[in-house]
Amino acid sequence: MGFFTKKAHGVVLIDVNTSSVGGAYMVHQKDTAPVLCYSARIPLEARTDESTDDALLRALDILGHQLSTQGAAQLFRETGSGHIKMLVASVSAPWQESSVRTVSIVEKFSFVFTRALMEKAARAAMPAPGRIVADTSVISTTLNGYKMDKPWGKRAERADLTVLTSTVDKAILSRIRSSLRGAFHSHPIEYTAFAPVAFAVVSNLYPHQKDFIAIDIGGSNTNAILVKDGVINGVQTTAQGLEDLLRAGRGAARHTSQGDVTVTDTSFGPRVAEAEQQWLAKLRELFALLAAEHPLPRAVFLLADASARDYLKNLIDQSSLRTLWLSDDPLSVIPLSPEHTAARVRTRGLAEADVHLAFLALYYEYTLAKD
């Protein structure tokens, strides 16, 4: 048994994106940093004639089996108990979509602002047909024009709520839920997405950084949020990811054999450069959408696979994207790695450093943990 009290409990973290599915057992104990004691990540590799959805579910089934066998045993060794309080599953685009909206409550006479009133206003919007709400968060509350961190019980004639909503394709969510239920049975599942996770975690890691962009570059999609004055002002996604660059690089590197001589494609450099420019053009469109209503902040937090993190930072640093900021000053592109969360999320046992799973662990601590 490890160093945890009887009040400690386990949480299963699931990260679903277009390049892989990751999972971890986290141990939560009040007033201590969360501990990842087991983790695994399964790449998303579609077989011939297999859809991306089917590849996702196959990888998720493999992950669930590893977590419920090897991971559960490790949790027991660490805590002396296999108790799991809940699952927290983050689902990425293209299966998930996030949006920000403002909800206003205006009355002729003053009213008392309550949590029940807030929750009723936040859930007023209905999702599009074929989609289901996975997560709804009120990320800012203004009463009579004044932003309030603790608005409960205060009187006002007007309340303005900034609401972040994430919806998931109903069919794929049903299949994800079925896969997770096969491994974890009756445990409650809390679904979330990149936007609420990145907002909560980056805001807490960098409390003095009120204006920033957080961007997550996955296999075939890129997600971004814009935060202004500590509030999300924009959420965007583009169907362009790291795999587009890798595919172009593989294509440019092909060579042929002529007799005993290997002939390498001499256009490798220009073709890779062309692929990079096409990828950056898509990224520019994403940033342009964020910049449509608000000036872009210069701090950019970058989430990506460890193997590509520095490459993507350099690519963004050296590109013409800077013209969107209407300034010659350099951007502050900060690649987020496990080192940035190491002081707040510990790993031990059979867990490996994984920034996406560390973000989920902190998201649970900041928004869901109730001791």
List the helices and strands and how they pair.
Blueprint: E1 9-16, E2 20-28, E3 35-43, H1 52-79, E4 84-91, E5 96-112, H2 115-122, E6 131-143, E7 146-147, E8 155-169, H3 170-184, E9 189-192, H4 194-205, E10 212-217, E11 222-228, E12 231-238, H5 242-252, E13 255-258, E14 261-264, H6 268-291, E15 299-304, H7 309-317, E16 332-335, H8 338-341, E17 346-350, H9 355-368
Question: Would you write up a description of this structure?
Answer:
The radius of gyration is 22 Å and the shape is globular. It has 9 helices and 17 strands. The protein has 371 residues and is of the alpha/beta class. About 3% of the residues have low confidence. A 6-stranded mixed β-sheet has the order 9-4-1-2-3-17, sandwiched between helices.
Given the C-alpha coordinates, what overall shape results? globular
N-to-C CA distance: 22 Å
How many beta-strand segments?
17
Structural class: alpha/beta
Number of helices: 9
The largest sheet, given as strand count, sense and whether it forms a barrel, is:
6 strands, mixed
- Rg, Å, rounded: 22 Å
Order of helices and strands: EEEHEEHEEEHEHEEEHEEHEHEHEH
User: Would you tell me the overall average pLDDT?
Assistant: 87
Strand order, biggest sheet?
9-4-1-2-3-17
The portion of residues assigned to helices is 25-40%
User: Approximately how much beta-strand content do the residues carry?
Assistant: 25-35%
Query: Spans with pLDDT under 50 lasting ≥5 residues?
Result: 255-264
